[in-house]
Amino acid sequence: MNKPISLSRYLLEKQRESKNESVPQGQIPPKLRLLLEIVARACKRISHAVNKGALGDVLGGAETENVQGEMQKKLDIIANEVLIEANEWGGHLAAMASEEMDSIYVVPNRYPQGEYLLLFDPLDGSSNIDINVSIGTIFSVLKKPEGSNAVTEQDFLQAGAKQVAAGYCIYGPQTTLVLTVGAGVVMFTLDREQGSFVLTDSDVRIPEDTKEFAINMSNMRHWAPPVRRYIDECLAGKDGPRGKDFNMRWIAAMVADVHRILTRGGIFMYPWDKREPEKAGKLRLMYEANPMSWLVEQAGGAATNGKQRIMDIQPTKLHERVSVILGSKNEVERVTQYHNS
Ligand code: F6P
User: Which residues contact 19 (CB under 8 A, 6 or more apart)?
Assistant: First the structure.
């Protein structure tokens, strides 16, 4: 068996291979390597807290609401603090933004300022925490625009296509960190005995076709006609226009549903619906949809909001929401075509 490659060694090798810094994607300059190492270390700490569960007094609600008006869990707050504390002093970041914070967190003056911006959903799938089902941390890295001095929220409002790194760490039966810098998708599994993430898949690919869909079916009556049509056709199975039976999965944590799709294909949808017609969708563009879309595209899949590529959307606010359709390419193109025809 080949010698296992740790995340640290992988990043160092990629940093050495990085030559052309004028093309940021696919590159790992030293400060980005440091940033990714630190995010991975923070994820390890979150993984330990998640694993302790009731023994660590980390379960249950925190009796507070986040900016989205959702009740926070103790672990949401713990994960947010771990990520901030780990990242604020290293000199690689200018500021951070999180699902759990109303506005951006600028690196305090007492620490050196860096050129990167980090966005995260510290604990995605919070409703799964107390029931011992997979949850995860999603992150996206942008570069601070050139010429900008004091960092502002405006600096964060960049399309997903500008990301320089994105990934997630899923806390499930295994803890797995999944990463892209624009040169494919790699997966690392946490070896708890060694305390390090070990490379376990160096070329993640999503099959173009699938027979598996993920959507919250309880919202069916609220969907727009194109989504309804697509799911109706899947449900009709062998006897319908698709001529094949479909299977359904819904873990209710985007991180876990996307992990399944990266592992064996499928389509995931959280579309716009009539419950809150003024909102574009439920999921957040900048720290949920963008990083997941980039991972999916880098693995050969596709991601749209029904009308356009998610990564091309110009954000207008930090906590912007978006309709999400992502996964196996041919299925995503089919649903998108239903919206555009
Ligand atoms: O962040 C929101 C989220 O928890 C996603 O991870 C997940 O896909 C979705 O909400 C679950 O929504 P619902 O509660 O409608 O099943």
Answer: none
Half-sphere exposure of 216 (CA within 13 A, CB side): 16
- Our answer on whether the CB atom of 252 is closer than 6 Å to any ligand 1 atom is yes
Quote the ligand 1 centre to 196 CA distance (angstroms): 29
Instruction: Report whether 42 contacts 86 (CB < 8 A).
Output: yes
Q: Give me the domains of the chain, ranges plus CATH numbers.
A: 7-201 (3.30.540.10), 212-340 (3.40.190.80)
Residue nearest atom 13 in ligand 1 by C-alpha distance: 252
Which of 121, 254, 287 is the best mutation target for the ligand 1 pocket, counting ligand atoms within 8 Å of the beta carbon and taking the most?
A: 254
Q: What is the pTM of this model?
A: 0.95
Spatial neighbors of 120 by CB under 8 A, at least 6 apart, are: 83, 96, 97, 98, 99, 137, 138, 139, 140, 287
Place of tokens 């569960």: 53
Residue 222, helix vs strand vs coil: helix
Atom in ligand 1 nearest the alpha carbon of residue 216: 16
CB-ligand 1 contact for 133 (6 Å cutoff): no
Using 50, 70 and 90 to split pLDDT, how confident is the model at 183? Answer: very high
Residue pLDDT, tens place only, 34-90: 999 999 999 999 999 999 888 867 777 766 777 767 767 788 899 999 999 999 999
Token pair in block for residue 79: 């994960």
Instruction: For residues 159-163, give the mean pLDDT.
Output: 98
Q: Categorize the per-residue pLDDT at 149 as very low, low, confident or very high, splitting at 50, 70 and 90.
A: confident
CA of 76 relative to ligand 1 center, distance in Å: 14
pLDDT of res. 3: 78
Name the percent of the chain in helix, strand, coil, to the closest 5. Answer: 35, 25, 40
- Whether residue 125 has its Cβ less than 6 Å from ligand 1: yes
What value does the mean pLDDT take over residues 188-205?
Answer: 96
Ligand 1 centroid distance, CA of 250 (Å): 9
